[in-house]
Amino acid sequence: MNDVIHLLPDHVANQIAAGEVVQRPSSVVKELLENAIDAGATKIHLVVKEAGRQLIQVIDNGRGMSVKDARMAFERHATSKIRTTEDIFHILTKGFRGEALASIAAVAHVELKTRQEGIDLGTAIQINGGKIKNQEPVVTPKGTIISVSNLFYNVPARRNFLKSNAVEFRHIIDEFQRVALAHEHISFQLTHNDNDVFQLAEANLAQRVLHIFGRKLEGQLVPVGEETDVAKINGLIGKPDVAKKSRGEQFFFVNQRFVKSGYLHKAVQSAFESLISEGLHPSYFIFLTINPEKIDINIHPTKTEIKFEEEAIIYAQLRAAVKHALGQYQVTPTLDFDRPTWDVPTLNRKKEIKTPEIKVDKSYNPFKNPSGYGSSSTPKAGGSFSYYKLEEESEPIQNQIIESGINFKREVLQWHQSFLVTEFQDDLVLIDQHRAHQAVLYERFIKKTKGNSLSQQLLFPIEVHADSKEISILLETEQLWISFGFDFSFEKDLIIVNAIPADITAEMVPSVISEFLASDYREDGLKYEEILARFMAKFAAVKKGTAMSTEESKHLVQQLFELEQFNYTPFGKKIYRKIDLAETLRMLD
Description:
Blueprint: H1 10-21, H2 25-38, E1 43-49, E2 55-60, H3 67-72, H4 100-106, E3 109-115, E4 122-128, E5 131-138, E6 143-149, H5 156-160, H6 165-182, E7 187-192, E8 195-200, H7 205-213, E9 221-227, E10 232-238, E11 250-254, E12 257-259, H8 262-271, E13 284-289, E14 295-296, E15 307-308, H9 311-328, E16 386-389, E17 412-415, E18 419-424, E19 427-432, H10 433-448, E20 455-465, H11 468-476, H12 478-484, E21 487-491, E22 494-501, H13 509-518, H14 528-540, H15 550-561, E23 576-579, H16 581-588
Parallel strand pairs: 1-7, 11-13
Antiparallel strand pairs: 1-2, 2-6, 3-4, 3-6, 4-5, 7-8, 9-10, 10-13, 11-12, 14-15, 16-20, 17-18, 18-19, 19-23, 20-22, 21-22
């Protein structure tokens, strides 16, 4: 019989290994940034073009490499970190298996320039698809410059599985933020398509968090610290007021390495129990220092999953540390982000205690404007955004339900200013008015993107705080927003909304933007216009508790049943329930 088992060629083996290590452009970013840190760099510049498809370049001022090391770095399992199996359990650096560069070079065009201190000339290497094309002396600064271009050029199937540039760049920002948070003593810069996204100077942790996530967190962070023989815990947690629907500002680091741990997250979440509403997630930036012999970080190729030898003790310690910090936050002063430490004020017993004054607006009537439209109060945006400023137009534009004549022949009654009751196909129908209007508006918004959407210019633009990651996502999807009738401009950590669609009011805009950026639907194959239309419909739809005239009620029912799909909202929630005669008789039996 013929033999069927054979050794794979090196280039095929490297491409298979690349499938584990290099899943998308952000995987390359992670590996290259960690290499720069291991090389002792104090300044790191990440340059990206077309969300990493065209170029990923990391420039560092680290130790650099010798001529031999530069070539050996691209061999599989070539490493300076371990000599024996036991060394794996004492690793405190980032990478150690020696697979990253070989895997990257197998699926891209790579150029490396590097020079050590005290050496006149450095060395340059060009590798295409895992094969070294050239190596020669070169004049280059101390440190290393590594450029990865045309990622997955020789694996088109993997390249085709990449998401849009906006999604891929979001993953790159995630990796950049994780590395930057863990190494606040290093200055980082991120440039995308020739635009500077982050410029982070050397700082303390509080400053680094503020520089990455914006001033919305200023005054909202509380220091946490606890040390035992098992683990040292330190970092920052957000006050309950800044808890969000999305899980974006949640970071665990074990021995300076970012890790994902549902177990640790549960410990923090339980510490916030009864302090935040269900469905909200607290912000935290927590660092654990643990004896490397007591953990196993090598259970996944990306090294983001971890096992603890004494996990129950660590869980209890983390939960207690967070609960203690939360118990103290009411007397903790606003963090001074220009200082490395914080002082907790002591009570001055000799100082006279001033009784707080309570002012009551006797003219306020909460029932005067049940719909919420045209309110003079300034709303606060949810999600990752914090509302900054809103100057209202003279009269907010109402979202009228009636647009044409009414043809619906049945009677429609409003029940509890929340439901519409009517007869349809001989059945009694109970309709959720908010969900029905959502479905109608969603179809209207989708259709308008295919034509010319009307836009209303704002006399007083809306200003919304945002971090660099959020702004970058809006920049990537700017044409989509324009097609809906929005007009944006950007200033540092602010989004300036100059115009909005005619179908929504200014008060809704911060929430629409926030929900769009916090959405998890972007990874589920939905188009961006569908996601944006969903949230516009959600906030523009008539609310429960809003009185509707008979004409408005009839026309909304008519519009609903004219839709091709009128059973569920864009979010998959049931819009109405039918009750037939037989069911009614059973209810009365």
